[in-house]
């Protein structure tokens, strides 16, 4: 049966410009010698990786929805961006820590996935070097899918890490790039999971799900390539070297790495006393002094705002049915409310502080705009991004939503948005606009 197909094979094969014998190097099967590689190792790592990727995908699309991209100019990926915008769905204000939780989860799961992803790529690297590189049209499509899977995974994780590290070496905007690449990656992943599920089932059935973890170094044997269907290129070695580490040793190392970077990321996400765990946090342990000593996303100086811009001549313009101009003193004379609310940044850090200011609903009432559908908020900041936002009706009506004037009992520092900034429960950090100077309540 096998011989017959081996004989008929060359006749069916289109004439391709590849010599039968692979060139020396990674295309030779005996180049890859680790006895740990094989379908079981790949299956085990994939089973650990997949739940983390699913968490990242779900929380990623949740984050997209949390921006309320159907309102004003909130859409970063552009109006009419590919589906899943959940238009018409208004991001809630309850619980106040909702976005801190979903986005913290996104970043922690994403960071924890990276060591496992790297181990997985290492485990299957022989399969990237198939010879001949293309056998047929079907094979070429298959290989293209693999390229999108590997390229897509590296791209989304790399750009994610660069964003939490505030490092933007590329000319493109992070948000649309990360978002669209996620579609490519998840599409290729769905196909990959569907085609590889039989391999996972077979290797777990043949070798056990965790049985190989019981083997110490002395009992670590190479995986037999025979578990793959005939003709399939296996990651198991044809000429294995002696093991230098057991499979459980390798997996314990990868697991420890994943847990370590996950905990570091969680330190930023949970904040408070856990903040000290975030040894790699790009924003440093804290910024400012006294009551204003918590992290700053963009300093006033970095966006061209100086003390002169927010002096006594600063006024807030509020528009609704009528229009008002209010000085900071005027605002301080209005009914004040104090709320303990988090700022939860898309980068995965959050910090909860006590904010004092005027409820947005009170400002709406002053200009005859109770029950308005949206609120467009602009900053006096002219350069850079994040200088405006549009809130939904529920966010305006929530009595905890504030135009904050103080934090932890003290005046806001210039870096935290003096003279006034938005603080809205469960709102992504980026929409808590600092240095607010214009608010426009709109009714459809
Ligand atoms: N005008 C303006 N508001 C802004 C920003 C900005 O760059 N400019 N950064 C936003 C982002 S991304 C976050 S996470 C929060 C951070 O607030 P903080 O710097 O007071 O911690 O402010 C938001 N408000
Ligand atoms: Mo942010």
Overall description:
- By secondary structure, the chain is of the alpha+beta class.
- The protein has two domains: 23-272, no CATH class; 301-442, Oxidoreductase, molybdopterin-binding domain (Sulfite Oxidase, Chain A, domain 2), CATH 3.90.420.10.
- Helices cover 38% and strands 12% of the residues.
- The strands form two sheets. Strands 2-1-10-5-6 form a five-stranded mixed beta sheet.
- Strand 5 (374-379) and strand 6 form a beta hairpin.
- The longest helix has 34 residues, at 174-207.
- The N and C termini lie far apart (72 Å).
- The model is unreliable at 1-11 (pLDDT under 50).
- It binds the ligand Nc1nc2c(c(=O)[nH]1)N[C@H]1C(S)=C(S)[C@@H](COP(=O)(O)O)O[C@H]1N2 and molybdenum atom.
- The site of molybdenum atom has 6 residues, from loops.
Q: Notable features of this structure?
A:
10 strands, disordered N terminus, 5-stranded mixed sheet, 9 helices, 444 residues, alpha+beta, binds molybdenum atom, Sulfite Oxidase, Chain A, domain 2, binds ligand MTE
Largest sheet: 5 strands, mixed
Strand content: 5-15%
Unreliable runs, pLDDT <50, ≥5 residues? 1-11
Structure ligands: the ligand Nc1nc2c(c(=O)[nH]1)N[C@H]1C(S)=C(S)[C@@H](COP(=O)(O)O)O[C@H]1N2, molybdenum atom
Q: Average pLDDT across residues?
A: 90
How many domains comprise the coordinates?
Answer: 2
Order of helices and strands: HHHHHHEEHEEHEEHEEEE
Query: Helix segment count?
Result: 9
Number of strands: 10
Compute the separation of the termini in Å: 72 Å
Binned, the helix content reads: 25-40%
Anisotropy-based shape: elongated
Main sheet strand line-up: 2-1-10-5-6
Query: Taking Cα atoms only, what radius of gyration do you get, to the nearest Å?
Result: 28 Å
Structural class: alpha+beta
């Amino acid at each position: 049966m096998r011989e017959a197909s081996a004989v008929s094979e060359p006749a069916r094969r289109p004439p391709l410009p590849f010599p039968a014998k692979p060139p020396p190097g990674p295309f030779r099967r005996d180049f890859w010698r680790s006895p740990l590689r094989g379908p079981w190792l790949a299956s085990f790592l994939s089973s650990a990786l997949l739940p983390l990727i699913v968490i990242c995908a779900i929380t990623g699309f949740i984050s997209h929805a949390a921006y309320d991209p159907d309102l004003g100019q909130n859409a970063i990926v552009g109006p009419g961006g590919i589906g899943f915008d959940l238009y018409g769905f208004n991001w809630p204000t309850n619980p106040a820590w909702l976005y801190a939780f979903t986005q913290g989860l996104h970043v922690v799961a994403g960071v924890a996935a990276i060591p496992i992803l790297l181990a997985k790529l290492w485990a299957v690297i022989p399969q990237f070097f198939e010879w001949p590189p293309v056998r047929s049209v079907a094979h070429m499509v298959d290989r293209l899918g693999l390229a999108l899977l590997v390229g897509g995974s590296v791209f989304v994780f790399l750009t994610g890490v660069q964003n939490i590290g505030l490092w933007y070496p590329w000319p493109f905007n992070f948000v649309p790039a990360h978002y669209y690449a996620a579609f490519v990656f998840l599409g290729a992943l769905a196909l990959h999971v569907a085609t590889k599920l039989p391999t996972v089932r077979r290797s777990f059935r043949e070798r056990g799900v965790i049985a190989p973890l019981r083997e110490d170094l002395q009992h670590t044997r190479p995986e037999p390539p025979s578990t793959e269907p005939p003709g399939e290129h296996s990651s198991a070695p044809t000429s294995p070297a002696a093991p230098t580490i057991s499979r459980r040793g390798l997996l314990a190392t990868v697991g420890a790495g994943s847990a370590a970077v996950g905990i570091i990321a969680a330190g930023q996400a949970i904040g408070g006393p856990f903040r000290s765990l975030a040894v790699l946090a790009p924003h440093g342990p804290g910024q400012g002094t006294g009551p204003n000593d918590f992290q700053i996303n963009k300093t006033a100086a970095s966006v061209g705002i100086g003390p002169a811009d927010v002096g006594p001549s600063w006024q807030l313009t509020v528009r609704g049915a009528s229009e008002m101009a209010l000085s900071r003193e005027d605002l301080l004379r209005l009914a004040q409310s104090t709320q303990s609310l988090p700022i939860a940044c898309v980068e995965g850090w959050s910090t909860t502080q006590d904010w004092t200011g005027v409820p947005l609903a009170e400002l709406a009432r002053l200009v005859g705009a109770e029950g308005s559908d949206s609120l467009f908020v602009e900053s006096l900041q002219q350069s850079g991004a994040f200088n405006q936002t549009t809130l939904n009706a529920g966010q305006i009506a929530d009595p905890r939503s504030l135009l904050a004037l103080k934090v932890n009992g003290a005046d806001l520092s210039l870096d935290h948005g003096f003279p006034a900034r938005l603080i809205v429960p469960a709102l992504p950090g980026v929409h808590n606009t600092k240095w607010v100077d214009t608010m426009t309540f709109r009714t459809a």
